[in-house]
Amino acid sequence: MATNASAICKFSDGTISFLRNVVTLDAATELLTDASGNLNQAGGISVGQANQGKLLTHCSIKVQTDNATSGAFSYGQIVGVGGNTIGAIVGGGTQATGLHQLKRPVRMMTGVKINVFCQAVADEVQYASAALYCASGKVDIFQGLAISDTDVPMLSIVSGSSLGESLVNERVVCYYATYPATNGLSEADTDDGVSAFFAEDAQGQLKAMMFAAIGTGTPQQVPFIEDVFTVRQNDTLTVRADKS
């Protein structure tokens, strides 16, 4: 049973590019231009190469498993020429609707690509993912594989750095958080989990908390959540799951 991810990309000149690929679950997979032959576009090409010079303004990602609704979106990453994260994309499941405007437009060129990370919804610990945009335009995506009843640091998917190391002195203005477990982060009666990702300073003072979307089966894709907090060097972002 294969899981596919599709992306509709809209550019400032009004043109559209459709990306699609079979994804490897629990791993980042690049979406290439659709090669089915059903559309009038060259297939099997990275988004930057296929649309050189264009300005990407809108994009949404859809995830679907064959004959099922278990495929869940975790994050959509726009990758720059140097391999860094230059943008993030919202996504969702088979019922998702609408085409979302990017928080920051991204110029296309050879080497720019779109990666998507997908999982299967299950009643167990999962990968926690959070894409954070800053007022400066910087964006990073953090991820951690949750462990029941344990604090797990969420680290940059590119650098492996903590929140404070990656975004020191940046002012976060919005985020997109996902955790595709059927019953959420904290489901047991023992209250050993925390039902949101949490950012703390070096003294353990809470700076932000992020409820997470499941990433599938919703009537509409969740937009970026507006929130503002300033990151300092020793700040951390943590997921603490709890499974009965």
Describe this structure in words.
The chain is mainly beta. It has one domain. The protein has 2 helices and 17 strands. The protein has a 7-stranded mixed beta barrel with strand order 1-2-3-8-5-6-4. The radius of gyration is 18 Å and the shape is globular. The model has no long low-confidence stretch (mean pLDDT 93).
Question: How do the strands of the widest beta sheet line up side by side?
Answer: 1-2-3-8-5-6-4
- The mean pLDDT is 93
Number of helical segments? 2
Unreliable residue runs: none
SS class: mainly beta
Q: Helix proportion of residues, in percent?
A: under 10%
Elements, N to C (H/E): EEEHEEEEEEEEEHEEEEE
User: Could you tell me the strand content as a percent range?
Assistant: over 45%
What's the Cα radius of gyration?
A: 18 Å
Global shape: globular
> How many strands, which pairing sense, and closed or not: the largest β-sheet?
7 strands, mixed, barrel
Distance between the termini: 28 Å
SS elements, strand count: 17
Count of separate structural domains: 1
Write a brief structural summary.
Helices cover 3% and strands 45% of the residues. With 244 residues, it is mainly β.
Relevant terms:
globular; 2 helices; 244 residues; seven-stranded mixed beta barrel; mainly beta; five-stranded antiparallel β-sheet
